[in-house]
Amino acid sequence: MINRAQATLLVMLVIASLSMGAVLFRMRERAHERMLAGQDSAPTQAPAVAAPEQATLLVANDDDNSLRDQIYSLPLPKDPGARARAVLGKLLDLYAAKESNHPVPGGAVSVAQVFLLPANGTASAPKPEAPSDSGPEIAVINLKGSFVASHPSGLETETLTVLSICGTLHANLPRVTEVRFLVDGAMRPSLAGHADLTRTYLTVDAGPLEPVHP
Predict the structure, then answer these.
(1) CA distance 149 to 140
(2) Do residues 106 and 144 lie in contact, with contact meaning Cβ atoms separated by under 8 Å?
């Protein structure tokens, strides 16, 4: 037997539960209405895709320790930072391919960000919302840690990767005269134990190299 107080409490709990259920049901209905309204107001036109353009990539070859120009037709965005990521993504996709002459795992997703700053700016604290207006630029490339961790170790192979990145950037964005590297947003001593990532690289030093045979 339950006494009157317990019965009263039970009735109050039932009423509270029913009230809460009604409130939650109404909230769900309103959320559904907002979702439908958002769908109705969403643009039906497909987003614009960048038109293909010719891009010059400086591709490394481990067989003779060379860098060679290769031209590809790529959809390149107008925004310089996005353009830089697109050409570097294609370059790293080539290195990640099965038959690559410079095998490096990772591909395009290995480039987290590319910041373009005035060449006399501060590369250690890039601000993507404040791009340079004119004159030479420094590119700050933020690589993912997974790319660096899986990169083959060796002075020649690491140097070819760094120089090919620098040369590819300059070939497609001529105002880029200097390149700095970050890894997961921080400075790192080297790529895989040899190529120095604490220094600033000049893109003028990253032109096509004549084959060097051992």
Answers:
(1) 19
(2) yes
**In 3D, which of 27, 22, 2, 26 has the Cα closest to residue 14?**
22
3-class state of residue 210 by DSSP: coil
Torsion angle of C-alpha atoms 10, 15, 19, 24, degrees rounded to 10:
30
Residue 70 backbone phi and psi in degrees, to 5: -135, 135
Q: What's the pLDDT at 92?
A: 98
How many residues make up the chain in this entry? 214
Locate 80 and state its tokens.
């310089």
Distance from C-alpha of 74 to C-alpha of 53, rounded to nearest angstrom? 5
The candidate with the shortest Cα–Cα distance to 185, out of 140, 136, 132, is 140
Q: Which two tokens stand for residue 55?
A: 């891009």
Q: Is 114 exposed, middle or buried (0-12, 13-18, 19+ CB in 10 A)?
A: buried
At 36-63, the pLDDT tens digits run 555 444 444 544 566 789 999 999 999 9
DSSP state of 191: S
Q: Token pair for residue 123?
A: 């590369």
SS (H, E, C) 82-137: HHHHHHHHHHHHHHHCCCCCCCCCCCHHHEEEEEEEECCCCCCCCCCCCCCCCCCE
CB 139 within 8 A of CB 123: no
pTM for this entry:
0.71
> Residue 121 is encoded by which pair of tokens?
């700016």
* Sign of torsion over alpha carbons 194, 146, 165, 57: positive
